[in-house]
UniProtKB/TrEMBL annotation:
It comes from Megalurothrips usitatus (bean blossom thrips). This is C-1-tetrahydrofolate synthase, cytoplasmic. Residues 11-129 form the Tetrahydrofolate dehydrogenase/cyclohydrolase catalytic domain. Keywords: Amino-acid biosynthesis, ATP-binding, Cytoplasm, Histidine biosynthesis, Hydrolase, Ligase, Methionine biosynthesis, Multifunctional enzyme, NADP, Nucleotide-binding, One-carbon metabolism, Oxidoreductase, Purine biosynthesis. Homodimer. It is found in: Cytoplasm.
Amino acid sequence: MAAQGGVAKVLSGTDVAKEIRLGLANDVAKMAKEMPGFKPGLAIVQVGGREDSNVYIRMKLKAAEEIGISAALHQFPRTITEAELLLKLKKLNDDPNVHGIIVQMPLDCENKIDSHLITDTVSPDKDVDGLNTINEGRVAVGDMNGFLPCTPNGCIELIRRSGVSMQGAQAVVLGRSKIVGTPASELLKWNNATVTVCHSRTKQLDKVTSQADILVVGIGQPEMVKGSWIKPGAVVIDCGINAIPDASKKSGSRLVGDVAYEEAKHVASYITPVPGGVGPMTVAMLMKNTVLSAQRAFNKLVSCKWNVRPLPLKLKSPIPSDIAIARAHEPKDISQLAEEIGLFPGEVELYGTKKAKVKVSVVDRLKHAKEGKYVVVAGITPTPLGEGKSTTTIGLVQALTVHKGKNAFACVRQPSQGPTFGIKGGAAGGGYSQVIPMEEFNLHLTGDIHAVSAANNLLAAQIDARIFHEATQSDEGLFDRLVPKKKGVRTFSAIQLRRLQRLGVSKTDPESLTPEEKKRFARLDIDPETVTWKRVIDINDRYLREVTVGQSPTEKGKTRKTGFAISVGSEIMAVLALATDMEDMKERLAKIVIGLDRNKNPVTADDLGVTGGLAILLKDTIHPTLMQTLEGSPILVHAGPFANIAHGCSSIVADSVALKLVGPDGFVITEAGFGSDIGMEKFMNIKCRTSGHIPNAMVLVASVRALKMHGGGPPVVPGIPLKPEYTQENLELVQKGFANLERHISNGLKHGVPVIVAINRFTEDTDAELNLLKQLCEGTGAFRAVICNHFSIGGPGAVDLADALVEACSKPSNFKFLYESSLPLAQKASIIAKEMYGAGNVTFAPSVELKLKEYEAQGYGKLPICMAKTSLSLTGDASIKGAPTGFTLAVNDVTLSAGAGFVVLYCGEITMMPGLGIRPSFFDMDYDSVNDEIHGLF
């Protein structure tokens, strides 16, 4: 039946689209209120500049602005090639701030471009036009979770607004185009209409259309459908838009649809006008898809719920070697893991299929997201064999992620090749709680340590080169070579201008400097006796501990005694670990002090002009490496400063990325080196002071074996079988050694965080010993003591530990620093020694006292203290076990790490370059070239 009065009701797309835009604007405002700064992003890609395309683009930009969508036009010249356009689309696909991408068709290009390839290159998750084959296929099979094509979806919305039910209705779609006809028929079908698709070759077309309760027309022929073709009372949706001559119009033409409107309106019950019908709805549906895409991204940010697909453990008894276990477990493709934890493709740089760099830009993308709980893992004073701190870290995160359903990251240090080939044989955890692929974790990984080595040695080379050139050049010759004429003109580089500013010279024209200013600028006048910067190598090599450089005749007798440190002992490694982003790293690199000039002024890397070169070598190191546990949960591996000579923690960047990714209900388990006296103390007072992250809890790893050693057991020596005291039950030794664990518990409590003791079970331990240790922890102030078996059975063996941690972190953090930055350097060191180690007195060598006063005079007095001491004792003497009190701690040396941002005090002999033993670990290592397998890593 026709509408009352014989005229169809007009389905105004303009009015409905306005209503939809208002609703979308409200949706956008709600998201912005909950997460300030969040805004849907739409990218419109245009090739060439067709005026008809420009009209449509202006409509889309105007609608986006009304709603609050950040829309950007990416217009490319007609000369663009297909390959170039594909690259542009990839960048937009990878941009997390872009939620929708549309490619304006047709492409106005001189070169041949496959438009179908272009629409299929747009990510299905950003294909707000609904033209990607994947989204089209979803519609075809009734999956409405993708993006619905805009014009057909607009048609469906207008039909709904008519009030005419699609269920059971006879629907005819005239036209079978990819953009309108075919998807419109699919949508009608899934709205339970009975659909007939007609086209130019359909016989008796007018008879078919006259049977339709709902008629959708998109044939591309002006006013083709006459009133006689329409069933009385039908709903008519006209998708056509055609220009026909009209002498009465100023333009000489007017727009009409594919339906003869003046005839049809007297037959149909509802009809869409042209213009003002389907056209505005197409734009509205495009905006709706964009907001929908943004809402999906927003919900991921708010809920942060991961979809980690766990890997099954293949447990065996007796427990095989670590490498045998690792090799028996096939890791997931790292890109899959990245997707599971909410990373975007553009935030992940693949290194093969099992490891990838995660861009630090993730932190900026998630800057408005709430962070997770922050947990540090440290140990008691260990035996030389280690007590399973890394193993516990990994087992705990497996338990949290796989068995407790929590978002959880482990952040661990990258192991040095020195210990790997020397004594440890690997540092990926152990048993059924380890990082895989184990071989890649323990060897080159993504090359960060090598980059640190190269940067360190570039600075070392520049130091000696500068000393040499200053000794062999006149002031004028030195200046001329530092600021050479290029095409007859001298100009200062940016780094040279910074040096002039530090000298108090405001001039920028090299020719305007006086001879005195040129001399001050050109001569660093480094005192070779004060140079503290050493070369590094990531191999244990005792013969490099002290070397003489400059013995070639070309160095003209400018010899100097120096030495090598292991790469992870470089200050640049500490800079990497403490930098918050690349700009912060550059500032820290610039501040590195390599020694003094002859007037006792600090000489920096920036003075040497090398900051930019260091940054270039280190540009990729700022991004942490994503790997996985045996059970498929995520690990971030980054940086590796030694704990006994540096601050011994993984990076701030890795922790920052992880804290954002896990969300407010998630956990980041980060590792600190050795015992609480070294690693945890530096984590709290150096790392947390720098990052601003507040720890929620501390997991303290203890073992029966270590307590027996502290209770008076015989020495534990790597490579020598354990003595009977360690392999047989001995409750007395456990009881006597407990004082060491008690001190470490106290150390955590002094920082205001709950301490959970993880009692790492070893094969030799008896139930009586483990239960005694757990009982002893009661009354010490520890939040909980948990016996763990994660080495033997993986995550399930740390579930109780995970439960205790979740409970502990549910309470507010009362974290506090051990000392105030404003205190004198010596006083800060005394507080650490007395509060953390139990010392009664701290003595400073006269040379140390002098240097501390010099550092304070130079403006370094507020830096935190990094104590360099043995990890095998609470004292400065590795042979002293247990928990002695009242002893004197002697500080015999001090160095400044101005770039890293701390002052290093040395207690006793600290080896910066380890040596190889009689039988290094590599005796058991080999490479099977036939099967491409590494053997012999522990």
